[in-house]
Design a protein that fits this description.
This protein is of the alpha+beta class and 183 residues long. The chain has a single domain, classed as OB fold (Dihydrolipoamide Acetyltransferase, E2P). Helix content is 26%, strand content 42%. It has 3 helices and 8 strands. A hairpin with an 8-residue loop joins β7 (133-141) and β8 (150-154). The longest helix is centred in the first third of the chain and has 22 residues, at 2-23. The protein is globular and about 45 Å long.
């Protein structure tokens, strides 16, 4: 009888742990190369309007809607004017948009464009006046291993790095989603 109770107890603990793992899912944040590879589109976008929404995608319901003008495509295809959805109803992570210029890594949830790597999908482009010139920078990965450590780098360097990674990926993958040829 004692061994039956021990087995039943072990099964109950295992089942509880399994149920907790399912119920307590955590967000996965892709590192740099994986984020670039997984994004359906990468673009520099000027977000001009952000407001409330309640729009159901295939996986999430979104409570934020943003509209922007695509300035430059690095990967994929987007219309010149794009509607983005953020503030997913996933408790662990979400994509949030604000007005301004951004380097965006986008994915699709059904027919909706949203961030491809939660809040790391949206990298604000900053302009700093320095004497007789303006420097344009973006928060970018500090190294290839960490998803969270960033430092400001010149936008041109970041774009060149993304293009080099896309070229490297192009050699391994079919070209259907990797490079925008409509420039």
């Amino acid at each position: 009888m004692k061994s039956v109770l021990t087995i039943a107890g072990a099964c109950a603990v295992a089942l509880a742990a399994f149920d907790c793992n399912v119920a307590c899912a955590k967000a996965y944040y892709a590192p740099k190369k994986e984020m670039i590879e997984r994004a359906d589109a990468i673009a520099i976008v000027d977000i001009t309007k952000v407001g409330k929404a309640k729009k159901k995608g295939e996986h999430w319901t979104y409570y934020q809607k943003a509209t922007g003008q695509v300035e430059r495509m690095l990967k994929g295809k987007l219309d010149r004017t794009i509607t983005l959805y953020g503030q997913e109803d996933f408790i662990c992570a979400s994509s949030m948009f604000s007005e301004g210029r951004f380097l965006l890594f986008l994915g699709k949830d059904g027919e909706l464009w949203t961030g491809a790597n939660w809040h790391l999908s949206s990298r604000r482009i900053m302009e700093r006046k320095k004497e007789d010139r303006t420097e344009v920078g973006v928060e970018w990965f500090e190294n290839d291993k960490s998803s969270f450590k960033t430092k400001e780098r010149p936008l041109g360097e970041v774009v060149t790095e993304i293009e080099a990674i896309l070229e490297e990926l192009k050699k391994k993958e079919p070209p259907s989603k990797l490079i925008n040829t409509d420039q």
